[in-house]
Give the backbone structure.
Amino acid sequence: MITAAQMRAARALLGMDQRELAERTGLSLPTIQRMEASEGVIRGNVDSLMKLISGLEEAGIVLISEGALSASGGRGLRLKG
């Protein structure tokens, strides 16, 4: 799953504000704000979490498991390309 810190970092890597992320994912701005204000792993219904992850991946973010290495040898999340 994704943490609030990872979500904020992903948005920063993309140069995207909360409103743009909400539009890209089909989630409301208050939902994005609530997710980012979470402590640790983001909580929400499965549909909202899937929309968030899909939207980030479509924008170029690659999410990998904690401690795992990406295909390029990095850790955590990275921008495709």
Observations:
- The longest strand covers residues 61-63.
- The beta strands are 61-63, 77-79.
- DSSP finds four helices and two strands in the chain.
- Helices lie at 4-14, 18-25, 29-36, 46-58.
